[in-house]
């Protein structure tokens, strides 16, 4: 007699004493079928499955992180960073989805044709899922609708020179036109918010002393630019997002604007939360970024901005370059390329620096759910039924020393080199399958 055994309910069950859901940390068995979460059962009630993955008791199952601010630079500047290296570094850091910035590649992603070149370059190289921002430059505002229809997740703008000639900044009239355009499209404008007049009036960046570089990018540049964005977002009822917020004294105006219903959000970055100006050594241009890393008091206030829900998410602003560009001028902060390469170590950097009140549930909100919500990826960044089974297995008490030569992004330079960080990513899973370095299985995402 043939007995027909019941079919397994799931392909895989992930069983962990610490599962980080949007509401709480729970002991649970998370069932996955066809790459999606189909059940979250009690820890003891393991659904029938072909395979059970037991998460060690010293680790937690987090949602795969979502990083909405990554400069990949391919095509055109692949020697700075390419999709193969960037997505390997991301996966090693627990990131399962990234959104690529439109500048530093050649061509910049400011047309549908350029977006297609970017997608062609990324195809079959990505270990994780990848989406794309479009750019808002003076010459393409009338064509932003075409880019939106082609699937970009929004539009990035600069208010001052971007650092590369292929991506022009917006003057005040162009910025207003761009805000009006995204309002009409119900799209999102994301902005490098520093006021050019304040920067022009500040001392020019020069020399090996970090304090001199810091003086060249005063906090007023951020606050004045953010005030402009608030005014325009309110006037046109547009969705506007402040990139890489470094100046905590902008928080009260952001809070007040949001209480009035202005549709403005903000992010900050691991380097602003874990590094401070007082600690940056003489000539250490690996710490140079714009806006700059500010002082300890400012850092404390940024953490409070997260606690108070004024800052919505933490993303890397992974902005790599070659070692030669980063060391240009022999440690002269005025000559070196500005950007922190931190994609792989963002989670442990933030966890190491976090105040006592921060829980892993908070980290999941800020580094997974928040960025996913920003770009409208409802199936990413959360452990809930129906979401993609993207996971990060994280050992929060384990420590390691960062060695820049062992990081998986392309160029071996890091502001975190030599630092002891707390929290180790043990494994990363995309749609229920572990990312191991075999055939890349990442998908290209569209809005």
TrEMBL record:
Enzyme nomenclature, EC number: 3.5.2.5
Key words, A-Z: Hydrolase, Metal-binding, Zinc
Matching InterPro entries: Allantoinase (IPR017593), Amidohydro-rel (IPR006680), DHOase/Allantoinase_Hydrolase (IPR050138), Dihydroorotase_CS (IPR002195), Metal-dep_hydrolase_composite (IPR011059), Metal_Hydrolase (IPR032466)
One Gene Ontology molecular-function label: allantoinase activity
Reported cofactor(s): Zn(2+)
Domain Amidohydrolase-related, residue spans: 61-433
Pathway(s) served: Nitrogen metabolism; (S)-allantoin degradation; allantoate from (S)-allantoin: step 1/1
Function: Catalyzes the reversible cyclization of carbamoyl aspartate to dihydroorotate.
Assigned protein family: Belongs to the metallo-dependent hydrolases superfamily. DHOase family. Class I DHOase subfamily.
Complex and partners: Homotetramer.
The name this protein goes by in its record: allantoinase
Lineage, opening ranks: Bacteria, Bacillati, Actinomycetota, Actinomycetes, Mycobacteriales
